[in-house]
Amino acid sequence: MSVGWAAWQDERERSAKTHSADQEALRQAEERAERQHDLAQQNLMAQAAAAYQDLTGGDRAGVELMTVSTDAVVPEVPVGARLLIDKKGPSYAAGDIVIYRREGKNHIGRVVAVDSATGRLTIGRNQEENRAVPLGDVLGRGVLNSR
């Protein structure tokens, strides 16, 4: 093997190591940026929750922040969004995003219709049949999300 060929191989190996190190540094920087973005969103939503509490009388029990873990109401509220819930919503209307309790779990859905006579909401979720939910099972209405 000639000296020129060996030097070329050494340079190629150094270049590959440098490229690998650069890729790792970029990955770490992207992870840091994502964590900072998430933290900024959390802080902004916490400030919004506090402001909303002030506007609605300062009752902390009436407001809650939740993280959405389903695509049931995409595109309005995407997976991973933080959702500010008004737990004291006196009434609901078609199009509202609500959190309701079913089978011991919280669910998110879109109000399709309100039946005041029976005290039920018809709730829709993407790729699921609409269902009737008693008003007593509704935990609150989404008033702001971080999308």
| Coarse morphology | elongated
Q: Main sheet, how many strands, which sense, barrel?
A: 7 strands, antiparallel
Radius of gyration: 25 Å
What would the CATH topology be? Umud Fragment, subunit A
Q: How many domains?
A: 1
Helix-strand category: alpha+beta
Poorly predicted residue ranges: none
Sheet with the most strands: spatial strand order: 1-2-7-3-4-5-6
Give the helix proportion (percent range): 25-40%
The share of residues in extended strands comes to 25-35%
Helix tally equals 1
CATH class categorisation: Mainly Beta
Q: From N to C, what is the helix and strand string?
A: HEEEEEEE
Under the CATH scheme, the architecture is Ribbon
Q: What is the end-to-end distance? A: 59 Å
Summarize the structure.
The chain is of the alpha+beta class and 147 residues long. It has one helix at residues 3-55, and strands at residues 63-67, 82-86, 97-102, 105-115, 120-124, 131-134, 138-145.
